[in-house]
Amino acid sequence: MSDDQLIAAARDAAAHSYSPYSNFAVGAALRFADGSVVTGTNIENASYGLALCAETVAVSKAMAAGMRGGLEAVAVTGPGTDPITPCGRCRQVLNELAQLGGTDPDILCVGPDSVKRVKLSVLLPEAFGPASLT
Ligand code: THU
């Protein structure tokens, strides 16, 4: 799947966002080395602080399906005028899956007119992860 297709998958996922409180629909799509793609979208809650971000939902789906590495690229889309970058918690969640497989995925932060491509290690330098516990 190309980067453009990955971005389209993230946008499609955002169509299922449950975000009645923020009205900020986010989509995420993870691409793996074996060619598989797993998507997620944000799921909010009447108890506002319990909102689940799109990237966290996508990583949870992937890990629940048995994925433990090979994370190559992540596309994140939002409704704003600027490219959306993963929140701090999502960077840490993405790092867990990435570090398990020894990859440093490209994060495609998608805006209406542009895509910002940045390595996860740049968004989360000197990360604490599974390797830190050995
Ligand atoms: N959100 C995400 O899904 N991913 C991020 O990386 C940042 C924020 C969601 C959480 C909440 O439902 C909405 O965007 C507004 O913060």
Task: Describe what this molecule looks like in 3D.
- With 134 residues, this protein is α+β, with helices and mostly antiparallel strands.
- It has one domain: Cytidine Deaminase, domain 2 (3-Layer(aba) Sandwich), CATH 3.40.140.
- It is built from 4 helices and 5 strands; from the N terminus they run αββαβαββα.
- It has helices at residues 3-14, 54-64, 88-101, 120-123, and strands at residues 27-32, 37-41, 71-77, 106-110, 115-119.
- A 5-stranded mixed beta sheet has the order 2-1-3-4-5.
- A hairpin with a 4-residue loop joins strand 1 (27-32) and strand 2.
- Helix 2 (54-64) packs parallel to helix 3.
- The model has no long low-confidence stretch (mean pLDDT 97).
- Bound molecules: tetrahydrodeoxyuridine.
- Residues 19, 22, 24, 26, 42, 44, 51, 53-55, 86-87, 90 line the site of tetrahydrodeoxyuridine.
Topology readout:
Blueprint lengths: L2 H12 L12 E6 L4 E5 L12 H11 L6 E7 L10 H14 L4 E5 L4 E5 H4 L11
Parallel strand pairs: 3-4
Antiparallel strand pairs: 1-2, 1-3, 4-5
Helix pairs in contact: 2-3
The site of tetrahydrodeoxyuridine has 13 residues, from helix 2.
